[in-house]
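Appendix B: a complete holo record

For completeness, this appendix reproduces one full record from the ligand-bound portion of the collection. The bound molecule is zinc ion. The inputs are the chain sequence and the ligand SMILES; the output is the full three-dimensional arrangement of the complex, encoded as structure tokens. No fields have been trimmed.
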Amino acid sequence: MTTSIAANQDKAPGEYGVRYGDREFRYHLCHLPSQKKASIRVHVHPNGQVQVDAPESAGLSEIKAAVQRRARWVLKHLDEIEERNRYVRPPQWISGESIRYLGRRYVLKVIEAPEQRKTSCKLIRGQLRVQGRNLNPARTQKAVGQWYRERALDVFQRRLEQMVDTLPWTTDRVPAWRMQEMQTQWGSCSPDGSLILNPHLIKAPTRAIDYVLLHELCHLVEHNHSPKFYGLLDRYLPEWRSVKEKLDGEAELLLQRPKDHL
Ligand SMILES: [Zn+2]
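The structure of the chain with zinc ion bound, as generated:
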């Protein structure tokens, strides 16, 4: 029911573990219609998520054996990803840093304004200007975080309104939704049909936001990750796989989470 960032932290059905020597990893199993793919295939996504595609006819023991045979290869890839993410440094919240918004980068500018009671945050000509008195990194971070949430509320609502117009099952009503900071999911859809969206998603390109919204809206009719569910994604956003892969590849950067979360 979720748009997972790293599926190995999410106890969704279709999650399995593999042991190799003294190491282990988890993978997400996707059943594909038999006519589409004849063999069991193992992928390591750029965010470290391991996905196994198997035809519906394949038995679990057959799948497990196939993953076991690829375990060394998977672990090698996971090590490379960890190495790469070691260089994602947490922001310092000072002037000159890069701030991401809707897939673009803006320069953060912290402006001391002793006469200004309330800290303001505005996007002006390629700069995100935080202005106020006694600004320190913690206050700047708070102001930018608040600005991100306001932008996210506005953008997510507008994209949802546009999307429900195009989907036959949502009529013209935007389902109830709220924001929640999450480290392992971009969004989720609860059984009562309300959506939870990760405000960090506002840093990603609009297309990636649309993918997450569509993913959750498709769960209103297909409450699982069945071939029917993926059929809906294919129909309404044919390039969703590449959009998802790119989004997941940037997860560390967008979430600024410590690397031990991987
Ligand atoms: Zn889902």
